[in-house]
Amino acid sequence: MYRLGVLLLGLFPVVSTAGEPPAPIIDMHLHAIPIDFEGPPPRTICAPFSSFPAWDPESDYREVISSIGKRPGCANPVVSPMTAEEVMRQTLAILEEFNIYGVTSGPMEMVGKWRQAAPDRIIPGLLFQLTEGTPSPETIRRWHREGKLSVLGEVTIQYQGIEPDDPRFEPWLAMAEEIDLPVGIHIGTGPPGAPYLGFKNYRARMHSPLSLEEPLVRHPKLRVYVMHAGWPMLDDTLALLYAHPQVYVGLGVIDYVLPRAEFHRYLRRLVEAGFGNRILFGSDQMIWPETIRVAIGSIESADFLSEQQKRDIFYNNAARFLRLPDTGAIAQHEKTSD
Fold it and tell me: Which of 18-32, 65-79, 113-127, 253-267 has the least mean pLDDT?
């Protein structure tokens, strides 16, 4: 039975002693995706980057990015495993080590495999684009009813040049509001130079989360979190949070890719503006499990955050957003409070 003690879990810093798990973390942005999602493995990413590519258009930009993926030339490279199986194994080991529960998106069959391997750790999501094979609202409604899907996200229509207010996306938003299905939508940073990597309709102006305003007003009961926190559109993000108090932001990818000083500047402004209670931890580890450690470290090293604020970002805000008694993960969280 659900206990009041679980509601209080994580409200105060928990000191881990020998034999006890660390205080729980909810990662709102995990992926179970094919190993070649970023190109043939192994792929390398800077965590963080110290500088982003400067491109001479005389060359093929895809070759520039490919060379960075093989020879990043940075101080903190993270190399991917060679197989999707190894990505899963390493990611699940890190989830166990840090007591993490992850909203995990990808193809449904891959998410199902991860959930079967770690049913107490994986909260199932759906990697979503608008294509011919996109599951219908009725199919998603059924998956949710059957307990196969807890979050609609990551929604990546930005890569297609489609904004949240596009009529093509409206049926899924209406369905999500009707069945109270949380939505995690990619608004913000993608790969540097995205329009030259095959995403011809991707535009920098679409980093602004203000594109969510009309859908939010049409669907006032919709639960939404903005993945990547709308970086670098800080003022637009603050305006959205101020005008729409139901919206949360996630820190996935920006907490390990951005230069640490830039990430801390962005995070600090969100907190100082009064929105520390709506910031969600996320890694967006993709095919690099070790980036989860870097993402955690970027929060832990933020000396402008109190221990309470760190706990809010790591756990409390997500627990409130997800209404955890309904997620199925709460039973395992309950064990950590015994």
Answer: 65-79
- Asked if residue 68 belongs to a domain, the reply is no
C-alpha to C-alpha distances, 27 to 175, 269, 280, nearest whole angstrom: 25, 21, 8
Query: What is the rounded distance in angstroms from the CA atom of residue 156 to the CA atom of residue 87?
Result: 21
Host domain of residue 240: 23-39+80-336
58 occurs within a structural domain: no
pLDDT for res 18: 52
Task: Give the pTM.
Answer: 0.91
Number of other CB atoms surrounding residue 320 within 10 Å: 15
- Domain membership of residue 309 (yes or no) is yes
Render pLDDT for 44-80 as a digit per residue (tens, 0 to 9): 999 999 999 999 999 999 999 888 877 777 889 999 9
What integer pLDDT is reported at residue 66 of this predicted model?
A: 86
Fill in the amino acid letter for 319. A
User: Token pair for residue 1?
Assistant: 């039975």
For residue 282, give the nearest of 323, 254, 311 by alpha carbon.
Answer: 254
Closest CA to 206 of 134, 249, 259, 157: 157
Helix runs in 232-290, H state only: 234-243, 254-257, 260-270
Q: Please report, for the domain that includes residue 92, its CATH number.
A: 3.20.20.140
Q: How many domains does the chain have?
A: 1
Dist. CA 324–CA 136, nearest whole Å: 26
